[in-house]
Amino acid sequence: MGKFIVLLTLAIATVATLAKPTSMKELTFLTRDGCVNTPDMVNNLDDALKSLGLPTDYAYIDIGTLPKRDARTGYPTPTVLYNGKDIFGMPAPKPPFDVPS
After folding, report:
1. CA distances in angstroms from 44 to 47, 69, 98, 101, listed in the order given
2. What global pTM score does this model have?
3. How far apart are CA 71 and CA 73, in angstroms?
4. What CATH class has 22-101?
5. pLDDT value at residue 99
6. Exposed/middle/buried for 68, CB within 10 Å: 0-12, 13-18, 19+?
């Protein structure tokens, strides 16, 4: 059983390495003008992606430039979305969208 777990772990690691994305287009960084936490969050996100050998070409969006009906305007900033979902599990905002913090 121990050998099976080791082999399975190696197989998953190999597949993950082969399937490493060449782009982070599914990743979106949301911020707003004056968000004091943005610089630290961007640095941490970039460091994390680089340490995993992933590109840092994610979308960087100022929510102030989005249409008022865009659900992303309801997220607090900074927020990181992957495939449109908050990476920490925060539910998507529902209208009416509050002013982000």
Report:
1. 5, 30, 27, 20
2. 0.74
3. 5
4. alpha beta
5. 58
6. exposed
